[in-house]
Specification:
The complex is a heterodimer of chains A (391) and B (109). Chain A has 391 residues and is mainly alpha-helical. Chain A has one domain. In chain A, 76% of the residues lie in helices and 0% in strands. Chain B has two helices and five strands, in the order ααβββββ. Classes of the chains: A mainly alpha (391), B alpha+beta (109). The interface between A and B is medium-sized, with 36 and 30 residues.
């Protein structure tokens, strides 16, 4: 069994380090194997837990995110430019570890909560989404900027509806490549990456906020963890970069942990890994305790792996990557790398989506409109989905 | 909190996790005979035997035989023929006052 745990951690690390590979892809392969019962449980849980931690390394260091961590590109990249890439990663690990401990302790309460909470979300969710969109527009300072924000939301919503299932190219364009192109235009950054940090204890509050967000996301259909984080950010306008990274780390891990009782007790899931478990495990008390133990072990190990890799990369950046950066080559190499990944995983349509989303991302940078307006690609299609259901 | 404190917490939760893992881990499926499976409803195990008779193809219902016989119900599509040697991972349930084996996985040997 320990072998399946180690294998899951290795696969989760690989899936986390390579942007574009999701644990869902690996789970699809696992469906073809004879994995069953506890073996399947341990393999999948350790893989997904690990990925939820490691995922932030490419997001912060190279600006290429997975589906579950793209909200971290901007705050993470900001800290990276300040020479605090390792601290940014460690903040997400801190959020993830707090989320693991508290979420597991809250399991029995959460199970009771989902049993009694009304599952009629058709009215609540559209109201939240409309309100979030309005906040996005109305918090822009001038009238022209408000109009521009509205136009950007409409364009990104159009992207979301035309390029269905192209989340990776779209997020890479809005938040990744556009940021990198902007960096290449600016003076090369030669800041040394620091490897020391100090996390203040008050960051625990952000981790708890993330856990609440993660719990809601786990059982409310149509809202992903990035969308939830973005909504929290919209309402907490003055949230600091460091606090936001803790919140993201927490929401990412707790969402996955809470999706387990949702699967087991409500038989609902949107996560490929959970679909796999639904098919392959038999629910007993032993399964629940073994699942919790697996999550604890893999979260602890994934936290250490993430901190170790992040420190290694930060130190390497100070040598090899730094030289590339001085010559303004690093961003260009990363851009080419992301384009190759997009073409490889999403084909020509993905590449077209990447071009359009990069263009829109650059417009938001140039016009100094909040980049969250690009989230229209997620918010508006989900809003339409609920509105059509009401009709 | 510094890096070493964060790592210490990670190590601590790994140890707690390992402790819980060791306490609650037990082999889920052990190889059992049909008579052992018959003894308790809800008992889980692996039964190896030959397909004696196929009652229905979808969902698959067949009679498994080793030293005794038991009716096996498998909700998934699976091709077998009479005489095939199979390994059935399952749980005993009672249906129409008859004990049958609810298969969770069937492997042709």
């Amino acid at each position: 069994m320990i072998l399946y745990l180690i294998l899951g951690i290795i696969m989760g690390t690989i899936a986390g380090l390579i942007p574009g590979i999701h644990t869902n892809n690996i789970t699809q392969i696992a469906f073809l194997t004879p994995l069953f019962g506890n073996e399947a449980l341990i393999f999948v849980l350790s893989m997904v837990t690990t990925q939820s931690f490691v995922d932030f390394i490419p997001t912060i260091f190279i600006g290429a995110a997975g589906e579950s961590s793209f909200e971290g590109i901007l705050p993470g990249h900001k800290m990276f430019l300040e020479g605090k890439g390792h601290e940014a990663i460690s903040l997400t690990v801190f959020g993830g570890i707090i989320a693991t401990i508290v979420s597991i302790m809250c399991f029995p309460f959460f199970i009771k909560f989902i049993e009694f909470f009304p599952t009629n979300f058709e009215i609540i969710i559209p109201i939240i989404l409309i309100f979030s969109t309005l906040v996005l527009i109305l918090t822009e300072k001038t009238r022209n900027k408000k109009i521009l924000a509205m136009i950007i939301i409409i364009i990104s919503a159009t992207h979301g509806m035309i390029f269905t299932n192209q989340i990776f190219p779209l997020i890479s364009g809005y938040f990744g490549i556009s940021t990198l192109i902007n960096s290449t235009i600016k003076k090369p950054i030669t800041k040394t990456q620091q490897t020391n940090f100090n996390i203040e204890k008050n960051k625990t509050i952000d981790a708890i906020t993330g856990i609440i967000g993660g719990a809601i996301v786990a059982f409310v259909p149509g809202i992903g963890n990035n969308l939830a984080a973005a909504i929290i950010r919209i309402f907490r306008q003055k949230i600091k970069t460091k606090n936001y990274l803790v919140l993201l780390g927490s929401i990412n891990t707790s969402n996955f942990i809470f999706s387990i009782p949702v699967l087991l007790f409500l038989s609902k899931t949107r996560n490929g890994a959970m679909v796999f478990l639904k098919e392959k495990i038999i629910l007993t008390d032993q399964t629940i305790f073994l699942g919790c133990a697996t999550i604890l072990i893999s979260a602890g190990i994934a936290g250490i792996i993430t901190i170790y890799l992040s420190k290694k990369i930060a130190k390497t950046k100070n040598n090899f990557f730094m030289k590339l950066q001085e010559k303004n080559l690093l961003e260009k190499i990363i851009i080419i790398f992301i384009i190759i990944l997009v073409i490889f995983f999403n084909g020509l349509i993905g590449f077209i989506a990447l071009v359009f989303s990069t263009a829109l991302g650059l417009i938001t940078i140039q016009t100094k409109i909040k980049r969250s307006t690009c989230l229209g690609f997620l918010i508006i299609p989900v809003l339409f989905f609920y509105l059509f259901q009401l009709i | 909190m510094q890096e070493r404190h964060l790592i210490q917490i990670c190590i601590l939760i790994t140890i707690i996790g390992l402790f819980v893992f060791i306490i609650f881990y037990e082999e889920e499926f052990k190889e059992k005979t049909i008579s052992e499976m018959h003894s308790t409803i809800g008992s889980k195990g692996i039964v190896i035997g030959r397909v004696d008779y196929i009652l229905r193809e979808e969902p698959l219902i067949f009679i498994l035989q080793n030293e005794e016989k038991i009716k096996v119900f498998y909700s998934k599509k699976f091709e077998i023929q009479i005489g095939d040697k199979v390994e059935v991972y399952g749980e005993t349930t009672q249906y129409n006052n008859e004990i049958e084996l609810l298969a969770l996985k069937v492997i042709k040997k």
